[in-house]
């Protein structure tokens, strides 16, 4: 049995909630899906530490999804003396290392360093298997021209990552519970509640928790509860099978 733990459910500018990152945990290991700048605090809030993370999957290159990699890399390198697995689509690599992490992680006590000095990097194109689970990558639509991916886990749990509505994916996708990016005002790069109501039929909406939302969520709680499965909450656990 797996547990998906909501480590954070806030948008990038949220103060009330940590970055929208989750962990998938079972007896074989712990995978983080995204690793934003709030990760150490978010893990601690669930009585977890950096040392408890075995692998990380990155959906796309934004600070609330990747800036925590710097902390995890340094602590694993200097403190725990271990490398953990990092799963990402190859199209994300250059932006992740050359344009985001290299300035800080590019040097260690031993001289210049590369991403592979900190992580066992696994490129994944369409799918991967990890700790007994099957992960299917979904190409979602976040920022025009910028790669971003969601996941379908065991055809059971759908995770959108940051995206605008993706009807063409969701209408044919087999899943039972979804976590979908959401915001409450009009947006070109996220999914406004209005756009989700407009684009998704009720039978899909009722399977979706809204996730990665801004601080004014209480104003929309009733609307969300009526039309969707609800809002994700920090510390919430969703059990699902292998
Ligand atoms: Zn983003």
How would you describe the overall organization of this protein?
The chain has a single domain, classed as Metallo-beta-lactamase, Chain A (4-Layer Sandwich). The chain contains 8 helices and 16 strands. The strands form 3 sheets. Strands 8-5-4-3-2-1-16 form a 7-stranded mixed β-sheet, with no helix packed on it. It has a 7-stranded mixed β-sheet with strand order 9-10-11-12-13-14-15, covered by helices on one side. Helices cover 24% and strands 27% of the residues. It has 242 residues and is an alpha/beta fold. It binds zinc ion. Zinc ion binds next to loops.
**What CATH first level would be assigned?**
Alpha Beta
Strand content: 25-35%
User: Main sheet?
Assistant: 7 strands, mixed
Across the major sheet, the strand order is 8-5-4-3-2-1-16
**What is the annotated CATH architecture?**
4-Layer Sandwich
SSE blueprint:
Elements: E1 2-6, E2 22-26, E3 29-33, H1 39-45, E4 55-57, H2 63-66, H3 68-79, E5 84-88, H4 93-105, E6 107-108, E7 111-112, E8 119-123, E9 127-130, E10 133-139, E11 149-153, E12 157-159, H5 167-170, E13 177-181, H6 193-199, H7 202-205, E14 208-211, H8 221-227, E15 230-231, E16 237-240
Parallel strand pairs: 3-4, 4-5, 5-8, 12-13, 13-14, 14-15
Antiparallel strand pairs: 1-2, 1-16, 2-3, 6-7, 9-10, 10-11, 11-12
This protein binds zinc ion.
Zinc ion is lined by residues 60, 62, 142, 162.
